[in-house]
Structure prediction request, 428 residues.
Amino acid sequence: MSDKATLEIDGKKFEFPIIRGTENEVSIDIKSLRSSTNGIITLDSGFKNTGSCKSAITFLNGEEGILRYRGYAIEDLAENSNFLEVAFLIIFGELPTKKQFEKFENDIKAESLLNEEMKNIISGFPKVAHPMGMLSSLTSALTAFNPITVDISSEKDMYNAIVKLLGKFPVLAAWAHSINRGTPLNYADNSLDYIANIMQMLFKIPTKKYIMNSITVEALDKLLILHEDHEQNCSTSTVRIVGSSEAGLFASVSAGVSALWGRLHGGANQAVIEMLEQIEKDGGDVEKFILKAKDKNDPFRLMGFGHRVYKNFDPRARIIKSYADEVLKDLNIEDPALKIARHLEEVALKDEYFVSRKLYPNVDFYSGIIYRALGIPSEMFTVMFAIGRLPGWIAQWREMRLNHEPIGRPRQLYVGENLRKYTSIKNR
Ligand code: ACO
Prediction:
């Protein structure tokens, strides 16, 4: 293949370099497009064809259903690693040695305490506030208590901000849950590991000894590994673009949490369970809901189906589906939602509408069933996703800063009014 792409406009030819990635993906570098063509830009709504950066973190091939972090297959990591080790890999590029891992884990634990004044902020939220809104606000508020994390001038500053956020973020997530439940705000217990700590912070109450269940801890660990990074999706692009203004890690991640909240993105895991419950309440007629999803006059979409980049099985959905079977069996739970989900998937995968549009189950289709089996309420599902995605957001922000990427600032094609004269209010 040629190493240049040619664009012809009004008989004039412009050449642009072709750049290849390490997995032979091909891109056209249009950096010089506007200056060489006297102002012409590309238009790509939803960025379906636009690469916003070069990245060495995650490789994803949506046509073949491949997902790798730093070159390791997601299946390999989910089977053999743990959440914090994968976080180190994603953020710093290599699997840690034993010594590196211990330091990383201890540095995070040392940062798990929150300033008591944070409680003034959280106590202002109503009990019915959505935990994603609380998490986003509290993450942003962290900057007020750690202003030094904004002005990052060395890798050491960066590391300090990273371990601070990894230490404090799950505590904030658990506090948001406590506000909803009306229970006391728990702190981390540094004798526990990262995932076990999340469980105890979410569920411990003062009147009862909290008994850790190793099956639930392992299931959550695996589930969160699958969520750690997913290249330039909506929330990650948000983190990078906010971070590109040098707003600081906490403010950037707070914006990422808000982006993840939407039901077309991370909010889909809550929407899936609500949809499965709705189908169950309605009598379990799966075919009726498939018809609704296909009807262009009906706003209903099959939640947990379809993906911007996977035009094949989402590899994470495959793994999560088998975990769902395993976890429910281990915990002795029979969940009618799992039966409905399996039936929906079976019907949709044979239906011409879904087949022709390459709509397959995505990561959110089965994850809610596992969260529910672990005792996590549906409004917390997206918060769990955010805890899982935190290392990815951090890694992408760090890469963007280390590569000295310019501030993100897309162009637009203006289609509004031409110049007109102001008319005073009495003449309108
Ligand atoms: N149910 C019914 N039809 C669907 C669905 C669905 N879940 N998803 C896509 N389609 C249809 C669209 O109506 C469209 O049909 P058309 O060509 O006849 O107009 C076609 O498939 C292409 O869909 P787009 O919306 O253009 O695809 P896009 O890449 O923009 O959207 C998205 C991807 C947002 C994930 C979409 O598939 C969707 O809304 N899915 C349900 C929500 C969901 O599960 N989101 C989680 C994604 S994973 C994540 O973010 C962690």
